[in-house]
Each structure stands twice: as structure tokens, then as C-alpha cells.
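To whoever picks this up:

The parser on our side crashed when reading a file containing two proteins. I've narrowed it down to the boundary between the first structure block and the second sequence. Both blocks are reproduced below exactly, byte for byte. First block:
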Amino acid sequence: MRARVSRVWARLRRLMPLRFAGLILVAAAGAALRFSEAEVDYLLRPVALVALALVAVCVALVLVTTLVVRRVVKGQPAGVPPELESGAELTTSFRVPNVRALGLLDVSLEWVTPPGFRATLVRAEGRLGERVSALERGRHDTLVRRLTVEDVFGLSALSFEVSWPITLRVTPVAAPVSATLAASRSSGDAWSHPSGRAEGDLVEMRSYAHGDSMRHVLWRTFARTRRLLVRMPERAVAPQPLNVAFLIAGAHDEPTAGVARVFLEQGLLGPDFVFAADGALKPTTRVPEAIEQIIDSVRVRGEGARGLDGLATQVEPHRLGACVVFAPPVDGAWREKLVAMSRRLSVPATVIIGVDTAGDEVAAPPARVPKWMLREDAAVTQATHLVALREKLEADGFPVRVVHRPTGKLV
């Protein structure tokens, strides 16, 4: 019932041109007129008439301008490309008449449907263009824009909505490839770039074979033993591709989704991988299908890791020995489900968490400032929850790696 009343009140507010400040001004001007007639005040009466005239002019301008803008907007296509990346800004081909040039009016824009987008109006080609950025991944088929025309005094405003059928696919922005990401698929004391050669120093030996370089022959050993030996490089980095990977959907999981995407697209899971995301019916071995599963996992954020155990049963048991789980940075019921699934593994899964804010980017408050004077910062709160989550996962026996998505480095 309360939600219905809120919707009706919001609709009435959009249809009523006067705002609260305008209503107060009209009421005050009306009271001043009655008072001036009773007291024969020739100074207060003109002021009240000017106030009423200002409100009337603002309402008329807003009403006429809204009709013009609505007619122009409804005749345009949606102007949104079919592909977007979360976090990236894009200026669409959608245009609005530049009513700000009049100096008395302003216009604002927002996306009602789909949620998770930030839209603003900027000057473009003598008109107002739309700049939009997606905050999260997803797939959408309907766009509803709400435009609001108002006067600069805040006395009157009118809003209207226009919808378009669209086909929009938003993928999570991927983290850049860095050498530290190779740590999750290799063993040894040194890491190489994923595209580099996995070779160490020339410390091993073997018998000479046709085609070996003469520079690598051990001539001193040949002089003593008459055996022709050559040096060979040590395998300082032994690639061990991860065979199985899961993505758990949850609150604030967009950075983790971007890290999972770079693992897939850059081959960090190896050529023979199996991937599954929350909400998927079965695991996949193809990168395009895995990316689609990552996008669709946003729909089951409230049920993180619900199908994790079922997906694990569809994978051969011997492949679960090298498993990685991409997890959200916020603790939840998914952690208990992950612990239950890990009981069937011979080796605990490696948990990878993506974040957009590194620990050194969160500034500590001054020591002399009392805590009751500090406002709770979202970044500090998220970092605190992340530290607690990491401690709980490590207590459960999971190796945990936190990846800073903007740089691709381990935190």
C-alpha cells in the first residue's frame, strides 16, 4: 500500500508544475494581497503582484518548453550502442534542445530503466548531448528516460518519460594484464609475464645433441672426462594452468567480474579450462560463453553461490584439484556454501577477490580527531569488511589473493 501511494504521489508531482517553493511563494503573495487591501498598503501590493507574475511566467515557460522538448525527444531513436563496458563514459547520439541558452530554464536527464546507469547532459553541436556510464554489467531490452524541465528559481518543474526498445549488453571492464596475475597459475620463486619465456639460468646439464650451440658446451668437463656436455636452462617457472574456475555473484562484485574476464580472455586459466558463473545451468569451456555467464550472473546477486555445489558436480573430480573461485568483496551466505563445496576438493580452492580501491589509497583519519566527529567513509568501510572477509577465508583454509582491478596487481 505504501509503495502504491508513493508511486501515485510521484506521478502527481511530475504532473503538477508548481514546486514547494512556488506554492509557498503563491500563498505568501496571496496573503500579502489580502493584507494590503485591508490595510491599504501601496508598497506591499506591487511586491505581491510581481511575485505572482514571476510564478506565472515561470510556469508558462516550463509548460511550453516541456511540450517542445517532449515532441523533439519522442521523434528520435534511442541512440545507444548495443555494446558498453561498465565504468566507461560514452556520449550517445541522443540530443535535447539547449533550453539552458534562455538563461531562465534548465533541463536534467536520468535513466529510469534500466537501473545502474549514470546519465548527464553536456553541450554537443549546439544542443545538449547525453553522456552515459554504466555502473554494472547486465543485459537490457528497454530504455526509459526521464527528462525534467525547471526554472532556475526552483519555482516550477515538469517531468515526462519516454521509452525505447533497445538491445544493450554491458560487460565488466577487464583488469590490465600484469605479471602478478600469473601467480595464480604458476609455481616457483619467480614469476614471468604471461607472454614471456618460462626459462631460468643455464645451470642444468645434458649430453650434446646435434644442433646444440657450441657456446653452451662444457669444455673443461670435456677435457677431464672426454664427455661432451652442454648447459641447459632451468625451468624457474613451471606453468600450472588452473583447470576449473567459478564466479560467485554478490554485492559489489563488479571488480571481481572484471578480474574473471581478464583471466578468461588472456588465457590465464590455461587452454583446457572449465568455467561456470552463478546462475549458469552448466559449465563451459569456451571464452565467449563464459563472458555471457559473467554478464548474466548479475541477476542472482542475492543468491550468491546457490548453484556452486551443483556446478561442481558436473566437473570431473580429478580436475577440481586445481580450482579458483572469484568471490565478491563482501561477506555473505556464499562463504558457507563455498566451504561446503570445498570439502570435495583434494586441495583448497584459491579465492580471488577484485577491488577498485587499493589499501594504500584509503587515507587514515588524523589521530587527534575524535571518532564522533568523523563521517563514515564508504571506502574505509569496504576496506574494513574486506580485511575481515580475508581473515575468515584464510581461517577456513583458502589461499586468498586480492587483485586491484585498475592496475591488475595483487594488493
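<<boundary where parser fails>>
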Amino acid sequence: MNSKYQPLFEPFALRSGVELKNRVVMAPLTNYSSNEDGTVSDPEIDYYIHRAKGVGMVITACTYVTPNGKGFPGEFAADSDDMIPSLRRLATSLKEQGAKAVLQIFHGGRMCPPDLVPNGDVVSASAIAAEQEGAPVPRELSEQEIEEIIHAFGAATRRAIEAGFDGVEIHGANTYLLQQFFSPHSNRRTDKWGGSLEKRMTFPLRVVDEVKKIVAEKANGPFLVGYRLSPEEPETPGITMADTLELVDALADKELDYLHISLMDFWSHPRRGVETNRTRMELIQERVGRRVALMGVGSIKTADDALKAIETGVPLLALGREIIIEPEWVQKVEQGRENDIRTTVTKDDQSELIIPDPLWQAIMNTPGWFPVVEK
């Protein structure tokens, strides 16, 4: 290994006591490849095994905590105890490769396709559709239903513990239900769950409290809890960077293991609400970096990109598309072969990369996902 990349390979101890062998994490990536009954499929297991050998931690694709939270075709389930054997199989497969296994728990809210949820009953904080063509108008959740979903996040956490995962990541990003409650676009409530910035934080913070309560009650050893968030929304009204700095402050008080800042570009700047001459990661690191570990993600493609990002003081880096296209990203850097990292795919690379058919079709049919070149 080129010694200049050594900072990427330093071990890191999380607050809970979970220890990572290095600073590189496989980001949660939807792969659309689970079985119809919500269990993890064989191709999915193979895909993960092929990518878990080098990283310090794998965060799984999101798993839904209630039947009406399913956000994608081919998404695996954590909504009943019947799913524990499936979850255990995934956790075991990841841990056998030497990576810590983290289950990302999720509810899609208004972003759920109606044909994936019972009776097409799409729900959210308020009856406001997403600003997308054909987006359904969701039904506003009742107080009792909100409490039931909070408890469902706790129940999914218990299943993760019983299945042998090393932790859970609460998915509060990418326009899904927790973000919908925090956003002034999707949350127009006037009760205790909405209105002011503080009230819009109530639901996500209650989910954190419930998850941590279950961990305290059920985990027999170190078990991590992370939280993923998106710092801004393009809509007006929408989440601003100023809102997010208040949210990360509140989350830092919860003594989480990390905050995972969901960005397309690690170096991106705020849209509005704060000074825009500094990056979002800089602002969040300054606000809470001494109180909670941060995980950065977004357009970290090369070893030099990763080194530059880690030198900002952010202790953990997640690789998403980069580790789909180059399953041995970490090993190649570790072996001094960083110039061999794959940056493009051809239409014939699926079997070599061990990518399940539904994910491969998404890659091939989504312009800009990856540079696809002819051989």
C-alpha cells in the first residue's frame, strides 16, 4: 500500500464499542433483487459477499419496517418475525467476509408506489403529494398510526439484534418518511407532530429514542445506531441547511454512533439558509463533529478523492456506486493497485461484477448511473 493512503485504513471505534477495521463503508444501495415474499435472494447474497471483503462495514439496502412502508420492487422485509431467518442469512454472509453488518431500517411514506402497499394506501405526515409527475396524494397518518410506526422501527431493531447484525441505520434521508415529517413541504400538520421546526423533529427523534430503547433492552453486546439524513430539499417550502443544522444538533444529543450525510457530492455547497461559501460537510462537522462521528458520501471515486475527504476530519467515508462498479476498491488501494480501480463498465460485465439482473437492468437503463463503454 502507498503509505499516503494509510489514513483510510486506520481502525475506528464507534461510541457503542463496535470497532471498524478501516474507514471505508459500503453505502446502502437499493438493488431491487429480493424475493417476492420479502426474503433476501441468493443473487443478492452473492452480490453482497463479493463487495464485503475489503470494507470495514456494510450498510444494507433499506428494509421496510411495516407493510405500508415498502418503497421499491424487490425490497427485502423486516416487518415480521418470519423475516428473522432471512435477515440472519444476510448478516452472517456479511460478517463472514470480515465486515460489520448494519441493517438500514426504513419507511417510504409518500414515496411508496401504490401497487406495493396494502390496498394502495400510501401514507405520510400530511396529504401532500411529492412534486413529481403522477405522484399519489398520500393519506395523512393518524396519531395512533404514527405511534405504531415508531414501535415498528423498534421491532425491526429487535429483529436485527436477533439476526446477528452489528447495528442499524435509521433512514431519515432521500425524501422518505422520517424526512417527510421533518420537511415543511410534506408536513403541514398543526398538532404536536408538525408546524414549528421543533415539532417537525418530533417524529424522527421519537424513532431514534425507540430504537435506542430496544438496543438497551435487547442487545447483549455492542450494537451501533446510526442515522442517515439529507441536508436540503429543492422544494419551497423545503428543508434548508439552517433547518438541518438544528436537526443534527438534536441528533448529536442522542449519543448516536454516527450521522450519515447523504449527498451526491461530498464537496457540495448549501442552497440556502446559511453562508454558501463553505461545504455542507464543513458546516455539519463544525456544528457537531466533536459530539458525533460523521460519515460522508458522494462522488468519492478514487483513492485520492477519499484521502482528500478524510483529511477534512470526517472519520468515515461511504462508497456507493463506486463499490458496485469496483467490488475490490478497498483491496486495490490496500495492495497499491489504486490505478487499477475500474471506472467504467461494458454491457458484458454483469457476471464478472456479480450484479443481480434487476440492478443491472436499472444500471443499463438509467442514463448517467455509470459510464457504460463499448469493449
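After patching the parser it read the second block fine. Residues 3-365 form a domain with the TIM Barrel fold (CATH 3.20.20.70). The first strand starts at residue 12 and ends at 13.
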